Amino acid sequence: MATSTRKKSNIKVVEVPQVDSYGHRQPQNLDMENAVVGAVMIEQDAYGMVSEILKPESFYDHRNQLIYKAVQNLSLQQKPVDMLSVTDYLEQQGELEEAGGPANIVALANGVTSSAHIVYHAKVVQQKYLARQMITFASTVLTKAFDQTQDVADLLNEAEMSIFNLSQNNMKKSAQQINPYIREVMDMISKAASRTDGLSGLSSGFEGIDKMTSGWQNSDLVIIAARPAMGKTAFVLSMMKKMAIDMRQPIAMFSLEMSNAQLVRRLMGNVCEISGEKLRNGQLKPNEWAQLDARVQTMNDAPVYLDDTSGLSIFELRTKARRLVREHDVKMIMIDYLQLMTASGANFNSRQEEVSIISRSLKGLAKELDIPIVALSQLNRGVENREGNEGKRPQLSDLRESGAIEQDADIVCFIHRPEYYGITLDENNRDMRGMAEFIIAKHRNGATGIVKMKFRHEFARFEDLHETQYVPVPQGEVTISAHADGFQPAFSPEDNPFAPGPVGGPDEDAPF
After folding, report:
1. Percent of the chain with pLDDT over 70
2. What is the DSSP letter of 337?
3. Which end of the chain is more exposed for a tag (fewer CB within 10 A), N or C?
4. Rounded CA gap, 120 and 46, in Å?
């Protein structure tokens, strides 16, 4: 009689620890994990239903991690996914025994009859994974906080970075049907049509700029860049004067370079038309004292919120910006300037990588708060090495430290003052002294071009062309009227050094 011998299985059963070293039970639901893994091996469309919810590390059981990763890789390679293909893949990777062997795979597949509730099961598994991540994060912070050698500021930055990454990595937004957005856009169009100024966004206070941009738009990241001494800070203070002091729009400014007192002194010179030198040394004539006393009254109770925290991190900014919008209804945030910010708490291979994270986070913050964010930026030295007014005019390639700034920004603007480089006449022999160019080089939703402006150096103040100045009357009466014809249409295709797309229209084809 023939006898058959069965080879004894040497499969090792991997026991999954249920508690950690502190005796706490880790958040987990192994039954639902097994149901998800089993379902993706028996139904063709099951993996597609959970692929955006779960990653291999979402599973608590290491065996399930390996099996789900095998399913993931087979799907990416567009190969069939079933018990046999998963078993074969794991064997090729040398991970079959670690995954519990063929018997475990068969048991998982046989343990479910359909994928009817797989999305619900997957969400439970993901929630348990997120809870474990939070426990790990909290335990790490707790341990380091007890360590007397740890710098508390560094630990705080690290904690901010960790919780930010945790929220970003687990933030999922599903696709939405178009109808609600049609209604939202129609409402926006109706509101724009009802405005007498013809703007759809927040007025900058400069007529020429508003003509080209239709105002600063909510959720836009606006970059204003220039070489040192071109007047970046002077420009945003001039804009702050118009927006917050004249029009009483709540504005916040984060200054990483200058103190709040220095900013207010410069803003005071701008508003009162008194030179910064006289405001520093106090050597004012009697009529200037009267002018200062009268015009400074317009600054009282202005909705201007200043923060001069040095070395501000993007995570501190998010917290402060949310509070300003919530408590003071701030309509726009300005940052002076981007390259002085940090993304502390993470390791970067280069400064360019860190600046990329900062610019991406600023764009995300603008979308979250639904307000425009205006960030100043430095340019590299390439401008200095070019000749002539055309050569000195900044280009997108001059943005310092990161091409990601150009990619993330909705609008990229440059400030150019030919007089700074000793250029006093243009190509038509017109006087360029006291003239400035506000160059819109990238505009995701509109035209590109140049707005001609005046720059009054003694007051560090930008103005529209033909803007009526304050009348210096002893009584201190203040009257302002603004009129500008300094709008220059977008470049012709021959002159435009900025946007490769259709000139004068949306800059949708600008390089990213």
Report:
1. 82
2. -
3. N
4. 12
- The encoded tokens of residue 97 equal 């025994």
Q: Model confidence at 170, in pLDDT bands (50, 70, 90)? A: low
Q: What is the pLDDT of residues 417-471, one digit of tens each?
A: 888 888 877 777 887 888 888 999 889 888 888 888 888 888 888 888 876 444 3
**CATH no. of 201-488:** 3.40.50.300
The confidence band for 507, taking pLDDT boundaries of 50, 70 and 90, is: very low
User: How many angstroms separate the CA atoms of 29 and 227, rounded?
Assistant: 57
3-state secondary structure 370-387: CCCEEEEEEECHHHHHCC
Topology of the domain comprising 30-150: DNAb Helicase; Chain A (1.10.860)
Q: Give me the residues paired with residue 468 across strands.
A: 481
DSSP state letter for 241:
I
56 vs 316: CA distance, rounded Å: 32
CA 420 to chain centre: 32
In the DSSP assignment, the letter for residue 343 is -
Q: Which of the four pLDDT bands, split at 50, 70 and 90, describes residue 8?
A: very low
Mean pLDDT, range 337-361, rounded to an integer: 77
* Under 8 Å between Cβ of 415 and 437: yes
CB hemisphere CA count around 19 (13 angstroms): 5
Please tell me the distance from the alpha carbon of residue 352 to that of residue 155, in angstroms, as a whole number: 23
The reply to whether 30-150 and 201-488 are identical in fold is no
| Distance separating alpha carbons of residues 47 and 50, to the nearest angstrom | 5
List the helix and strand counts (H, then E) for the chain.
17, 10
Q: Where are the domains of the chain?
A: 30-150, 201-488
Q: Which helix (H) or strand (E) holds 194?
A: helix 179-194
Calculate mean pLDDT across residues 123-137: 88
How high is the mean pLDDT of the chain?
79
- Within a 10 A sphere around the Cβ of 327, how many other Cβ atoms? 9
What digits encode the pLDDT tens for the residues 264-300? 888 888 888 888 788 888 888 888 888 888 888 888 8
Identity (one letter) of the amino acid at 103?
Answer: A
Supply the pLDDT for residue 491: 38
Question: CB of 427 within 8 A of CB of 241?
Answer: no
Mean of the pLDDT values across residues 88-98?
91
Let me know: does 237 contact 260? Beta carbons within 8 Å.
no
